[in-house]
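The following block was generated as part of the benchmark described in Methods. Ligand: flavin-adenine dinucleotide.
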Amino acid sequence: MRTANVVIVGGGIVGSSIAYHLTAAGCKDVLVIERESAQGKGSTGKSMGGVRAQFSTVSSIQMSLYSIPFYASFEERLERPSGYRPQGYLFCATSETHMAYLRMNYEKQVALGLKDAQLIAAEEIRNMFPQLRSDDIVGGSFCSSDGFVDPYSAMIGFMTWAADHGAQLWKNTEVTSIKRDAYGINAVETTRGSVATRNVVNCAGPWAATVAKMVDIDLPVEPFRRMLVPTEPFDQFPHSAPMIIDMSTGFHFRPEGLGFLMAWNDPEETPGYKADFDPAFIEKILTRAADRVPVFENIAVNPKRAWAGLYEMTPDHHPILGPVAEVPGFFLANGFSGHGVMHAPATGKILADLILDRKTDLVDSSVLSFSRFAEGRMIEETAVL
Ligand SMILES: Cc1cc2nc3c(=O)[nH]c(=O)nc-3n(C[C@H](O)[C@H](O)[C@H](O)COP(=O)(O)OP(=O)(O)OC[C@H]3O[C@@H](n4cnc5c(N)ncnc54)[C@H](O)[C@@H]3O)c2cc1C
């Protein structure tokens, strides 16, 4: 029977980062199991690639403070590009409540060591982007080291480095069950046969709850459709722009190729494995787009190029990381709630620390543990928009 020190279920960006961090820390015999014929067919290949440190909670900020410098130095470390482009994130506030929220976040970010964030006046936003309708903008926040990465390239970079240093990737192989003995996990069953192991990491993205069920754990991770609309080439807005977020509607966009990539969280969306793009979404998003950026009124969109993917949502919109006390040897890296690409480097480091050393300095791992739900310790947002 094949044996492995650690089996990682799922070869998306999270599984790949964990494989990299384990291997880089000296762990031998890491096996990543991916059921698809190629990596990136889950959420990673659908992502918008945004990376930011402008968060409201300590754990999210700390994870970004590890991840963004990691992406910035990715090529030096892994000899492959992450596609990191530090073009920033610009939050545009349209009420004093928004501004109070940004101010509170900013203070927390600075206290934790973020140097590139700043609060900015409405006038500054008007000067930076006169194309924005700014009559209701009261101010905002901007962080110059926020930006974008190429999720596919980063995922392949992590996995290739790990494979070059001893880890293995099995594609076209599905994990069908997880076996236990008196000590905890002792094997996984796959469509390629059994693998004896004492450590399994659930990196199954939106399918994480199904994998957790294999060890009788009810994992509160739900798939939630998210749609993105790329535009045709458009030159009436600068391509050096950051990710721009209209806080009045949640509409946001960033440059992509010769056009722009637009996103909006549709409040009518319901949970489920819906992978199809709904053409009706185009009118909804273009209405918000033209409202904030009047020149977008004439922007061309080809519905055939738009796509949908799945967010992996948790009840408190924070990931679930680390061991499960009830099942020794079973680890979780799930529920990133829209932030799995930007937090993949930190997740890899945290999981490698917890698997190899049982502790990590990167975050207070108890805050992100699975037990927080049973113990009523869900993470509270410092402010709700
Ligand atoms: C439209 C969209 C936009 C997004 N934008 C951003 C963004 O701007 N920034 C950001 O940080 N995040 C963003 N996200 C979220 C981000 O893409 C995800 O959080 C991240 O990709 C999760 O990575 P993962 O490796 O955990 O999951 P996945 O990439 O889904 O990988 C999980 C893998 O597990 C495999 N698998 C599942 N079950 C099994 C099994 N039983 N056996 C073997 N293999 C199995 C699947 O085939 C899959 O390849 C976005 C997501 C979407 C959908």
